[in-house]
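Example record

One chain of 163 residues, shown exactly as stored in the release files.
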Amino acid sequence: MALDILEAEGSRHLHLVKVTVNERPVKLLGPNETGEQIKVAAIEQDVEIGKHYLLDLVLDDGTYRRIEDDERVELHDHMVFVARKPEHIVVITVNEQPVSLKGHSATGTEIKAAAIAQGVAIQPNFVLQEELPNGTSRIVGDNDVVHLREHLRFTAIAPDDNS
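Predicted structure tokens for this chain:
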């Protein structure tokens, strides 16, 4: 189908460009396409990614540049793209302050470390409690795993605080 379009619209200076997406060859119609068009073409050519994946262009120095879905890319042969699932980021609250965490679960230690790194005034030895919807709380030990979801609320208190 893409080659039919190429022949039918030859007067518009379209040309076939060969790139790689996740180490798989993909043929695109140049001279440019959007990030979304690159992902759709890759999917149609059996690269196992989804349209919701993030697309990065691998630069000559080995670094990556994010290509947004609506961004047009000037194409040339041998360009290398990497498509990956977006990271799952959840915002929770620790001591009334928002804390962003990556992933679907975290230990008590990881929650406290993220809170500290994001400016919450607590220490690693503080006791972490999850505030439950029924008004009670449960202690989350350092090695206890919490399944992350938006709007979880925690308090972290000094171990010698008897309040």
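Notes: Residues 1-11 have pLDDT under 50 and may be disordered.
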